[in-house]
Every structure is written in structure tokens, then in C-alpha cells.
Amino acid sequence: QVQLVESGGGLVQAGDSLTLSCAASGTFNSYAMGWFRQAPGKEREFVAAISWSGGSPDYADSVKGRFTISGDNAQNTVSLQMNSLKPEDTGVYYCAADLTVVLLRAGRPDYWGQGTQVTVSS
Fold it and tell me: What is the C-alpha end-to-end distance of the chain, expressed in Å?
């Protein structure tokens, strides 16, 4: 009964910016939401997460300083603002939700979105 739906992916040039959005529908009791990505031929990796209960956002080292995660806990939505995009940022980006950021980062969140493709050309 819980569904996460991503939007905002697309094809951009290196150095461009792109913003992804995720909306949760149904009865939603998670306190943390975030993003993973999966590049061709690679395993899914953590990108960023936030907790509705407070604390600083968490980022993978590869995106820290370039990506910004934000959310609205009243609407159960989360966004990922991606700046200075690089070809290595290419992949399918997945929204995820779990009880805490720690559990989400463990790689087996309670909920996954369907993914949205981000392609960064050189």
C-alpha cells in the first residue's frame, strides 16, 4: 500500500544540473528517505538520505558538495538537487524509505521506487 514514485530524470550535459523528486503515497510510517543509484554493470550504491526526526543529511563521498537532498515530511516527499553533473553520475536513481538513515544505508530499505534514468553526456 506504500508506493514511491520518482520523477525528473533525463539526459543532460556534463556540468549541468538536474533535480529529482520522489513522492510517497499510501500509509507511510518511515522516518528516513533517500536515494540510491545503479550504473550499468555496477551494484546499487547509496547517494543521499535525510531523516524526518532531525540530524544532518547524509551523502556519499562521491556526491558531497554537488548534490543536495531536501524533503517535506508533511507531504512525504524528497528531492535531490544535482549540480555539476559528471558522466560517472549516470545511472538509474532510486528513491528509498526506511525507519532510520542507518537502516536505509544498510542497502535493504523497506521501500523502493521504480527508478528514474539520469544520463550525463561528456
Answer: 40
Q: What gap in Å lies between CA 84 and CA 43, rounded to an integer?
A: 23
In angstroms, the CA 49 to CA 77 distance is 12
Tens place of pLDDT per residue across the chain (122 aa): 789 999 999 999 999 999 999 999 987 777 899 999 999 999 999 999 999 887 789 999 999 999 999 988 788 899 999 999 999 999 999 999 999 999 999 989 999 999 999 999 99
Residues ≥6 apart with Cβ < 8 Å to 89: 37, 63, 82, 118, 120
Task: Report the sign of the C-alpha dihedral through residues 121, 80, 36, 49, in that order.
Answer: positive
CB 112 within 8 A of CB 94: yes
Give the containing element (helix H, strand E) for 105.
helix 101-105
